[in-house]
Amino acid sequence: MVTRAEPGSQPRLPLSRERVLRAAIKVADASGIESLTMRRLAEELGAEAMSLYYYVASKEDLLDGIADAVVAEINDAVSAIDVPSAGPSWKTAVRQRVLSAREVLLRHRWAPRVLETRTRTSLAVLLYYDGLLRLMRDGGFSYDLIHHALHALGSRALGFSQEMFDPSGGASDEQTAAALDGMAGQIPHLVGMLMEVAHDDPSSTLGWCDDQTEFEFGLDLILDGLDTMRTTA
Amino acid sequence: MVTRAEPGSQPRLPLSRERVLRAAIKVADASGIESLTMRRLAEELGAEAMSLYYYVASKEDLLDGIADAVVAEINDAVSAIDVPSAGPSWKTAVRQRVLSAREVLLRHRWAPRVLETRTRTSLAVLLYYDGLLRLMRDGGFSYDLIHHALHALGSRALGFSQEMFDPSGGASDEQTAAALDGMAGQIPHLVGMLMEVAHDDPSSTLGWCDDQTEFEFGLDLILDGLDTMRTTA
DNA sequence: ACCTGAACACCGTTCAAGT
DNA sequence: ACCTGAACACCGTTCAAGT
Known about the structure:
The structure is a homodimer. The first copy, chain A, is mainly alpha-helical. Chain A has 2 domains: 1-56, Orthogonal Bundle (Arc Repressor Mutant, subunit A); 57-163 and 210-232, Tetracycline Repressor, domain 2. Chain A is built from 11 helices and no strands. Chain A has helices at residues 17-31, 38-44, 49-52, 59-79, 90-107, 111-116, 123-138, 143-153, 173-183, 188-200, 211-232. The longest helix of chain A is centred in the last third of the chain and has 22 residues, at 211-232. Chain A is flat. At the A-B interface, helix 6, helix 7, helix 8, helix 10 and helix 11 of A face helix 6, helix 7, helix 8, helix 10 and helix 11 of B. The structure holds a DNA duplex.
């Protein structure tokens, strides 16, 4: 082992929690969350896996850390938004915040899954919800209705929703169509719907459905319902 | 190694995919999904881990299998429901199906997480959605609106929703109250809301919120919104 | 056809040791 | 204070071998 630096080797930056978390996000963004292992992360940093434990208590702590960092990124994005929120304009204010959060999550596809599996309550998440809450208070909501509303929105408030099935499932439209055709006897209504919807929507080049459109449809459905309750309660 | 059965040892049942999946569900129900390993499952069956690979192709295939089994259990439960679904009664029909699905999931707490992580499209899930679709067709929905509706419902159609944060987070109410108090400066609206809501609801002995009530609130909000669209479209 | 033992390539993590 | 090598206890899985 040579103590002196190899000729041409850069003097490595010292590690820090900040650098570890940044590198972890980089790995997850580039290669997916399943490829984020302590050894792989250490390699990315030019260090040994064991060195990471000086900055994170465990892998769970690492995941808590990168989840927090993503929500902090969301909080940064939404704090730049400055639109009126009094009375009826609460809705566009909330809508804009949620869609901003979604934009951040689209840059970190692994984030929803990691967020869902956190057990620790994250201060960053609480701060985000506190911001939404303020807007709804401006809109004239009671605390009680806001409480229901936050539960009704669930993860949608942070910009993502659970799609239980993707008809295309990663396969091509042709493969999907063929597979569905074979099952038509068992799932006649579903096949009927997908035939019609796929035909009607020439812009669905990414597959059967446009996720962004569907996300906004669901979001607006909930926000509109809440708006009605706000005024009738 | 003795070839003859030990005195008192029961002649072990032969393995089968059915038995493997059943045992896997039993382990997950009793000890949580994280304790479901191939070795632990084999032990439960009185066999070796390697023997399981004769019935499942991989652990992913095992998870696909138990997810399918749970949805099959849901399909059994909802197929016993026989209520009218024509016109405006579509809503109560769908509502009842969703709440039945939820009851099944409450017996398998690990199921939502496993369902979310499946990549393969499950026939059982398609059958479930096809059933919902039929009810909405009876209600007079267009295929196009049903398509939006299924996306808007997302996992809620199958009886569960993503709660992004649990204010209690497993801790006692006293601990939660103390922790929130310390953060009151940073999240004033959230603290204000939780103080009021917890105070107002003497029945919330399980913590700050009654999940079943909140689930139904969110579900009804969406169903009511869809019902309006059904009649105005 | 059905089941298994030994072994492999990975994990996260502990611990004592280096600078 | 910061980093590491060797080692441990666990994974899922391959493969050749047993009945």
